[in-house]
Automatic annotation (TrEMBL):
The keyword Cytoplasm does not apply. Residues 1-15 form the signal peptide. This is Glycosyltransferase. It is an enzyme of class 2 (transferase). Belongs to the UDP-glycosyltransferase family. It comes from Aquilegia coerulea. InterPro entries: UDP-glycosyltransf_plant, UDP_glucos_trans, UDP_glycos_trans_CS. SUPFAM superfamilies: UDP-Glycosyltransferase/glycogen phosphorylase (SSF53756). It comes from the Eukaryota. Keywords: Glycosyltransferase, Signal, Transferase.
């Protein structure tokens, strides 16, 4: 068997690094030599790999160039506020020279990169190294953003010039769909990117990456997104697009670990609740709820009369929202407010959890459906709204109703949506659907077959760069 040397280079966000690591582990397990490149502190924070993979999975540390605008030791998006992510992108671009040197001296067969290093395809082309763009975004979201020409010039170059243009189905999607942003979602994105600190727009970064790669690998599967995967390959990108499966996270063990005080405390609380009755609430480490949103959500949880476990974290450099006066006393015993990192996989797999109120991040969706846990959606930033649209279109999940212009929602609609998800007859179809999805999302053999097909392609096409970036 012809084993490969593959360089992997994810963006500095754990939502990107962790799926890259899962793919790296699979490739190493199949005898390939992996060079996983990131910054020193990020590598130290990654989960430990199995000892038998250590000879094949090599972590390469490239120090992140200093920027006075970044906090000390900030190397990932979770270390900075949304307002400072631009400085992180600027520092990341400073890795161009040391990465080029590594590639020149290591002669890999393939590079698997993320959407951020727009400068990497041209380096790879000069060295004759073929590239894979590994998208941690799902196929429908990629389809919405369209072909590289939208950002690089050419066909569809003027497709979007006003916010309204982002609220309608793009002209390159030929079938019926709800795939579009709502006005409050696109205005939030525009406000975030108006100050382009790094000097390079994200659209240009992704378009350059896609234009310069040989193949696109998507964290998806045909069982969920067949029409979108076909559209990407045949019409939008016009190059090979591989579904590599959903890269489900490692299996978890629910038994108590005497050394894990966090889980012991949480498990004791969950064990006392009825089966499939608890609402798990979590919005990741970067999304920010306003004070009004926090209050309405809290009062909605209270009036739902359902037990809930709420991971209420305050992102870096943001002000902690206050809970309504007396709220914690009124829900004591029924509600668990947890203000630190929580073991999400273990919580979702617990038999008492009957629903997940989530920001619709693709990784969280995969984790929840892998356990057959029904989803209630409240998208907050980035591609989360597009993930929510796809799930709603396919009747896999539903969103909390919101004002389309300002994004506001009410406590009453929160409570109604929670009860619909967990106990009302109206939500039974979503509970059944989530359980059905478990057979797809939680089937590791199915997803390993996708990875095997992808790996075989890499072996068969080693060293065949098309020089598309030149």
């Amino acid at each position: 068997m012809d084993n490969l040397h593959i360089v992997m280079f994810p963006w500095l966000a754990f939502g990107h690094m962790l799926p890259f690591l899962e793919l790296a582990k699979y490739l190493a397990k199949n005898g390939n030599q992996i060079s996983f490149i990131s910054t020193p502190r990020n590598i130290k924070r990654l989960p430990k790999i199995p000892t038998e993979l250590a000879p094949l999975l090599n972590f390469v540390e490239l120090p992140l160039p200093h920027d006075d605008n970044l906090p000390v030791e900030a190397e990932a998006t979770s270390d900075v506020s949304l307002a400072k992510v631009g400085y992180l992108k600027k520092a990341f671009d400073g890795l161009e020279s040391p990465l080029a040197h590594f590639l020149q001296t290591s002669c890999p067969d393939w590079i698997i990169y993320d959407f951020m290093p727009h400068w990497l395809p041209s380096i790879a082309a000069k060295l004759g190294i073929p590239c894979v763009y590994l998208s941690i975004y799902n196929a429908s979201s990629l389809s919405y953003f369209g072909p590289p020409s939208v950002s690089l010039g050419g066909l569809y170059e003027s497709a979007r010039t006003t916010p309204d243009d982002f609220t309608i189905l793009p002209k390159w999607i030929p079938f019926d769909s709800n795939m579009a942003f709502r006005m409050h979602e696109i205005m939030k994105m525009i406000n975030l990117v108006q100050t382009n600190i790094s000097g390079v727009k994200d659209g240009y970064r992704m378009a350059s990456i896609i234009h310069g790669c040989e193949i696109v690998a998507v964290r998806s599967c045909t069982e969920i997104e067949s029409e979108w995967l076909s559209l990407l390959e045949n019409d939008i990108y016009k190059k090979p697009v591989f579904a590599i499966g959903l890269l489900p996270p490692p299996r978890v063990k629910l038994q108590e670990d005497a050394d894990d005080e966090t889980w012991v405390q949480i498990k004791e609380w969950l064990d006392k609740k009825e089966t499939k009755n608890v609402i798990y609430v979590a919005f990741g480490s970067e999304a920010i709820l306003s004070q009004e949103e926090t209050s309405e959500l809290a009062l909605g949880l209270e009036s739902s009369e359902l037990p809930f476990f709420w991971v209420l974290r305050t992102p870096v450099d943001s002000t902690e929202s206050e809970l309504p006066i007396g709220f914690e006393d009124r829900v004591k015993g029924r509600g668990f407010i947890y203000r630190s990192w929580a073991p999400q996989l273990k919580i979702l797999s617990h038999p008492s959890v009957g629903g997940f109120l989530t920001h619709s991040g693709w990784s969280s969706v995969i984790e929840s459906l892998g356990f057959g846990c029904p989803l209630l959606l409240l998208p907050l930033i980035n591609d989360q709204a597009l993930v929510a649209r796809m799930l709603e279109w396919k009747n896999i999940a539903f969103e909390i109703p919101r004002n389309e212009m300002d994004g506001s929602f009410t406590r009453d609609l929160v409570a109604q949506s929670l009860r619909k998800l967990v106990v009302e007859v109206e939500g039974e179809c979503y509970r059944v659907k989530a359980n059905d999805m478990k057979e797809i999302v939680g089937d590791r053999a199915r997803h390993n077959q996708y990875l095997e097909n992808f790996t075989n392609y890499l072996r068969e096409h080693r060293g065949k760069s098309s020089d598309t970036a030149t």
